[in-house]
Amino acid sequence: MQGAATWLKRLVVGRPVRSDQLAETLLPKRLALPLFASDPFSSVAYASQEILLVLALGGVAVLHLAWWAGAAVMLLLAVVTISYRQVVRAYPSGGGSYAVASENLGPSAGLVVAGALMVDYVLTVSVSVSAGVDNIISAFTELNPYRVELGIGFVIVLTALNLRGMRESGRIFALPSYLFIAGVLVMIATGLVETLVGAAPVAQSAAYDVRPEHSSWSTFALLFLLLRTFASGCTALTGMEAISNGVPAFRRPKAENAAATMAATGLIAITMFAGVTALALISGVHYAENPCDLIGLPGDCANEPQRTVIAQIAAAVFGGTASPGFYYVQATATLILVLAANTAYSGFPLLTSLLARHRYMPRQLHTRGDRLAFSNGIVLLASAAGALIWLFEGSTTRLIQLYILGVFTSFTLAQAGMVRHWNRELASTTDNAKRRRQYRARLINTAGAAMTGLVLAIVLVTKFSHGAYLVVIVVPVLFVLMRGIRRHYDLVQQELEPEDEDTMFPARVHAVVLVSNVHKPVLRALAYARATRPDDLTAITVNVEDADTQLLEQTWQRNEIPVPLKVLESPYREITRPVVQYVRDLRRTSPRDVVIVYIPEYVFGRWWDNALHNQSALRLKTRLRFEPGVMITSVPWQLPSSHDRYHEPERHRPGELRRGITGPNPGSPHR
Questions:
Q1: Cβ contacts of 80 within 8 Å, gap of 6 or more
Q2: Angle (nearest 5°) at CA 242 between 239 and 244
Q3: Angle between helices 96-105 and 66-90 (to 10 degrees)
Q4: pLDDT of residue 171
């Protein structure tokens, strides 16, 4: 069974990679761009849709406000892009918003950012995958009943791909990302040219009217609707911080390559968002949270899904839902939306690894797996995202209400931290040219902090009752959890600090060998115990059946074993309690004495054999671990079935012997 599991793991994950090959996994800009920026690129597929969806509450009469909301989102995109280029250059070791906030605003601010980012990364996976499934259903509406199953299936596939390593997943995701960018840019160019020549595209839903939530809107209500629209459109900014978290994954010069990739990400995202928003308004796309609010929609509005905004634009520009252009945009949009989750798969494990290194998360999250990826972080992310998709039934509209609050929390604290960073740098810099650059950088980050802080307040107010309150609850819970983990590690470290008495030799060493029968494992344990030359050595057995105990004593004497055998009585037929009591009695006379308990164990190659053996030894070891001054020594006896378990022939990869790599193969189980 274990052999089959190992074979399946190698099939999914691939062969292990040596630690000294870590440099070979670093990313050039052409692979880093799709790997870290797939989320902001994919946001183009639903950010404009979210703007139209919220404005639909006011009816067709207020849809023209989408221009203002879109322009504000583009301005914010530009400011955040420029601001995070400063973060990348100032903190080339990675960590992004968490590192900036921790160093400049204190550990508590850093943990708030970390909690917000972790929530954001989980939602990035669930929202991106759900939006990708929406686009599949737009082309194949009969798949609507299988929305949740499709979403969880995509999460599993993404997890498997990322477990193969960052560089390999970058290669896999590069082509779909570039195909999507090309498709959207061609669609935008084609639609604008058609508009300029007087044949503007017309969306299928342009003929539908929209039933407003209220018949009349006050000035305050309209302003609140516009602010909520802007907040929903800010989903276009999700994932913009991922590059700053993943600077260590870039090739040298890391900071410059990351800054260049950040600039390219911002420019492409702004261009695509502006074009899609413009075409949505030109073609007259109408989109509502409840399809039954679209007056004139044919069919069963309660059960038939709407086509996404980008699907309607593609159909209008390329000549209908049967055109090759429509299927191309839908296919690449689905791919980029599903693969956009990879931004989170890149950022979340790096963040949790950094937190684990600072002892705010379990240490296992800091360990790289077989393929030099942070496997435990990847699996944790996938589990949380899959649970959200199942809990919210794969609904993009419901999931997206929880989104972006965490994003702007991290944006705001990071930019505020950068302002303090530049203040500190200015205080210690005397070179005038350098000071001018620092003044300019501080101005950029001040503007970024002000704008993202304002957006954070808007998002919190406008989305609180629509699901954002859950994030407001979860982030403090994560904060308390991380503080608790750090407190635990600090306490354990304090308790493990050596003292003078820890360097003293024990007064006496008592060796105890557990005996159930006279056979090879017991004789080996006795030989090992005698070889350590303890102060006294005793073999003990527990009397559960009188006949068996008498036979054991006779066999012991017949074999003339030079170790006294002591029988422990057990009127209630227990094994563990009499042994533990005997060990306690040995130490009671002197706290400085040490007792070493030798336990013979069978070693099998088949997993089911362990269910039939070693159970008493396992219970005894578990109990003895809690006894101070007691050492437990397992003495293994390998049975024939274990011989083939970890004794496979050495296999080397092509070229390893030529390069002088003659040690154990990294894929060999006995390495």
A1: 237, 240, 266, 411, 448, 452
A2: 140
A3: 70
A4: 66
- Which residue shows structure tokens 């604008």? 192
Please name the amino acid found at residue 5: A
Residue type at 659 in one-letter notation: R
Identify the residue whose tokens are 């798969």.
Answer: 345
User: What span, in angstroms and rounded, lies between the C-alpha atoms of 459 and 587?
Assistant: 64
Count CB-CB contacts under 10 A for residue 670: 10
Can you tell me the distance from the alpha carbon of 156 to that of 571, in angstroms, rounded to the nearest whole number?
Answer: 54
Q: How far apart are CA 335 and CA 172, in angstroms?
A: 11
Cis peptide before 305 (omega within 30 of 0): no
Q: Is 29 within 8 Å of 263 (Cβ atoms)?
A: no
d(CA 354, CA 94): 9
117-156 pLDDT per residue, tens: 899 889 888 888 887 888 788 777 788 888 899 989 989 8
Tell me the percentage of the chain whose pLDDT exceeds 70: 85
Q: How far is CA 269 from CA 235, 406, 436, in A?
A: 12, 20, 30
- The set of residues, in sequence order, having a beta carbon less than 8 Å from that of 23 and lying 6+ positions away, is none
* DSSP character at residue 234: G
Distance, in Å, from the CA atom of 454 to the CA atom of 358, rounded to the nearest integer, reads 31
- Would you give the distance in Å from CA 359 to the centre of its chain? 17
How far apart are alpha carbons 456 and 406 in whole angstroms? 9
The predicted model gives 252-266 an average pLDDT of 88
Residue 356 per-residue DSSP state: H
The CA angle 328-332-336, to the nearest 5 degrees, is: 170
Cα separations (Å) of 539 from 74, 131, 159, 518? Answer: 79, 67, 52, 11
How far is 671 from 666, CA to CA, in rounded Å? 6
Residue with tokens 């067709």: 60
pLDDT digits (tens, 9 = 90+) for 67-92: 888 898 999 899 889 888 888 888 88
Q: CA 407 to CA 235: how far, in whole Å?
A: 9
